[in-house]
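Is this the right way to post structure tokens for a design question? Let me know if I should format differently. Anyway, here goes:
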């Protein structure tokens, strides 16, 4: 019995010693392991947060400026009655949407009274010419008689006055004939240019008065789109115009506010000499031949909203970047030797998820930070992770 108790006591002591040794080992491992994790965390903090970067892609410098505007005809004319009278003829094409060639008659006013006025004025001229001839002969006769004192000086002076009066009446009769002929010509109203009827309010057998508005027509030969440009855009357009000797292609395309669906190709005409008071932008004019021609019917509309597109060439190197890399449209962060360095940029255009910029710095060798951090300061330490370039990167600014 005593031997068995001694054996049990020895076993308990061995278990206690073993547990103590195991506990000491675990504490040692934990201590060393904790120190290792702490060191790793400290090193990570020292290196800064991990950020994704990408290399800037050089673009060829051509890019498109877009500016919304309103397409209109370069020439629009309110059709008004020039003389009073009854409408005797209306062109069947003088209706909403009708098309007329230059010189086509729009409508006619009854000409009878005006023809009578012309005939009367011509008769007045004939009578006045006869009076002048009679007064001239009488004046010549009295001048001769006055030389021999056969008539008085008063009689001679009267003959001179009668001749002057007859000549004045002739001039007045000629003026009345000219006025009558002009009124007669106004009874027929013609299209001054190839025209599209935008509105009309005239019908046969109705009466019109001078100045009464009877319709609106526009010139189909030339459309224009006036748009506002920001200062840097206006400078780019002016520079490209100068480089191309004043020649520059422009395109008018539909936008969200457009009714039509057609596109037009034309040229930049000139800058407007005034600044738009609302937007404080420079106005540029794009002109489009045959904008309202018949083949564009249903696709192009006068006074429709459209976007003017102008391709320009930058005189600086242009860089293509993901849109999220540009901060406040003013700068990007480059990663140099593990720290952030600010690079100022000027945004010139955007295209889907890309943004095109110029910069006083050459960005080609820089790794541009994409990740957005809660705190971003010059000289901040970061860990750069390079993004693989997208396979279909376009080098031309669209």
């Amino acid at each position: 019995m005593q031997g068995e108790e001694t054996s049990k006591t020895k076993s308990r002591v061995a278990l206690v010693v073993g547990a103590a040794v195991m506990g000491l080992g675990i504490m040692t491992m934990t201590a060393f392991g904790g120190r290792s994790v702490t060191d790793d965390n400290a090193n990570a903090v020292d290196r800064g947060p991990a950020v994704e970067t990408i290399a800037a892609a050089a673009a060829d410098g051509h890019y498109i400026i877009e500016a919304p505007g309103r397409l209109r005809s370069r020439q629009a004319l309110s059709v008004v009655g020039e003389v009073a009278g009854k409408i005797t003829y209306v062109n069947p094409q003088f209706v909403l949407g009708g098309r007329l060639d230059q010189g086509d008659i729009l409508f006619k006013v009854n000409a009878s009274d005006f023809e009578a006025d012309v005939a009367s004025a011509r008769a007045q001229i004939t009578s006045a010419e006869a009076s002048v001839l009679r007064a001239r002969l009488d004046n010549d006769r009295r001048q001769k008689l006055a030389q021999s004192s056969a008539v008085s000086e008063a009689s001679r002076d009267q003959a001179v006055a009668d001749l002057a009066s007859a000549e004045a009446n002739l001039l007045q009769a000629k003026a009345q004939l000219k006025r009558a002929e002009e009124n007669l010509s106004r009874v027929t109203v013609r299209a001054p240019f190839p025209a599209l009827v935008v509105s009309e309010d005239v019908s046969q057998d109705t009466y019109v008065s001078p100045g009464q508005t009877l319709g609106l027509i526009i010139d189909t030969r030339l459309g224009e789109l006036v748009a506002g440009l920001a200062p840097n855009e206006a400078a780019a357009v002016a520079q490209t115009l100068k480089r191309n000797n004043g020649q520059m292609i422009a395109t008018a395309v539909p936008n969200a506010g457009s009714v039509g669906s057609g596109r037009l190709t034309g040229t930049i005409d000139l800058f407007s000499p005034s600044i738009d008071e609302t937007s404080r932008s420079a106005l540029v004019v794009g002109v489009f031949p045959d904008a309202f021609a018949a083949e564009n019917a249903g696709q192009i509309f006068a006074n429709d909203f459209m976007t003017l597109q102008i391709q320009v060439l930058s005189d600086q190197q242009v860089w293509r970047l993901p849109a999220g890399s540009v901060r406040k449209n003013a700068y990007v962060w480059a990663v140099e030797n593990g720290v952030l360095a600010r690079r100022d940029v000027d945004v010139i255009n955007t295209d889907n998820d890309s943004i095109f910029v110029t910069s006083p710095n050459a960005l080609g060798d820089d790794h541009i930070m994409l990740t957005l951090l809660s705190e971003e300061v010059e000289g901040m330490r970061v860990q750069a992770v390079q993004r693989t370039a997208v396979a279909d990167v376009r080098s031309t600014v669209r």
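Format looks fine. Someone answered above. Worth noting: The domain at 65-74+219-313 is CATH 2.40.30.170 (Elongation Factor Tu (Ef-tu); domain 3). The two ends are 101 Å apart (CA to CA).
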